[in-house]
Amino acid sequence: MQAWVNKLWYQGHPLRFLLWPLSLLFAVITGVRRQLFKFGLKQATKLPVPVIIVGNITVGGSGKTPMVIYLIELLRKQGFKPGVISRGYGVEIEGVRAVRPDDLAMNVGDEPAMIVARTQVPMVVGAKRVDAAQKLLSEFDVDIIISDDGLQHYQLGRNIELVILDGERGLGNGMLLPAGPLREGAWRLQSVDQVIVNGVTNSTTATFANEQSMQLQPTKWLPVSATSEACSPTANDELVAMAGIGNPQRFFNSLIEQGYQVSQTQAFDDHSRYSESVLDELASGRLLVMTEKDAVKCRDFAKDNWWYLAVDAKLSSSFDKQLLAKINKLVADK
């Protein structure tokens, strides 16, 4: 399904024109909703601490999770106590709930499980982000909130908006859902604080006055199984690579660019659930490598020859300075 959608949104499939009337209806509905908040007919909830939105205007993965982790580490170095809220995409959550480091991805969502496993940050998930934020403030010692996604969740008041854009894919065909990948029009990028472009841009990707560059840098191989004592992959090993993220090819390309021998690749739909038997058959005795987001869904049944490649987001020092200056001003004003 994801492969077909990619053809529609990113490869110029003619069916997009047949879906245009639905995109027009989507534009009307979402536009009316924005106006209700703009003119005060619906009220956004303001919180007593600064709120940073890490979102996008496109559907699918663009690098939000590494960016959230980057912000957590940056803020902690400056003495802040960040907390995170998220929808918990792909899972049914009754109300809101805190995420523990040992929570299964199937119960709290892929990204929340990964973020907490990596950082142990206080985090609450739920469909109503305002309720999640209030629970976060009432139960944890946090002084700044990062919202993983939620750019279009206008009920949640925000102080800083950061939009992550996939440099390779850009805005796709530039059309709104369902004919294209956009949740909001490209005009929305002019009103956010920063447009953070993940990776190298292609020739069709527009540039923005408020643009910053982000690179995902591989750090090290880690075993998916906590009890594995096997040796980590080397350039001489035959690898089978799998990925169930928004843009699997990005992961596959990164392995090849690092000089690894990738004999087979397998792309899964974003947020796919995995079984031991399927992945064991895919590996067929070879080293199976995956992303960190995939690994959190496999850690309870992983084999010794399964590995994931941890990556860190890298941004410029100017981005850090601009962001921290605005946060410090917000704190002073509050």
From TrEMBL:
Q: To which pathway does this protein belong?
A: Glycolipid biosynthesis; lipid IV(A) biosynthesis; lipid IV(A) from (3R)-3-hydroxytetradecanoyl-[acyl-carrier-protein] and UDP-N-acetyl-alpha-D-glucosamine: step 6/6
Tell me its EC number(s), please.
2.7.1.130
Q: Which residues form a coiled coil?
A: none
State where ATP binds: 58-65
Keyword Nucleotide-binding, does the record have it?
A: yes
Can the keyword Coiled coil be found in this entry's annotation?
A: no
Q: Which InterPro entries match?
A: LpxK (IPR003758), P-loop_NTPase (IPR027417)
Q: Where on the tree of life does the source sit, at the highest rank?
A: Bacteria
Q: Which UniProt keywords apply?
A: ATP-binding, Kinase, Lipid A biosynthesis, Lipid biosynthesis, Lipid metabolism, Nucleotide-binding, Transferase
What's a single GO BP term from this record?
Answer: lipopolysaccharide core region biosynthetic process
The residues the entry assigns to the signal sequence are none
Function recorded in the entry: Transfers the gamma-phosphate of ATP to the 4'-position of a tetraacyldisaccharide 1-phosphate intermediate (termed DS-1-P) to form tetraacyldisaccharide 1,4'-bis-phosphate (lipid IVA).
Q: Which family is annotated?
A: Belongs to the LpxK family.
Q: What protein am I looking at?
A: Tetraacyldisaccharide 4'-kinase
**Species the sequence originates in:** Shewanella fidelis
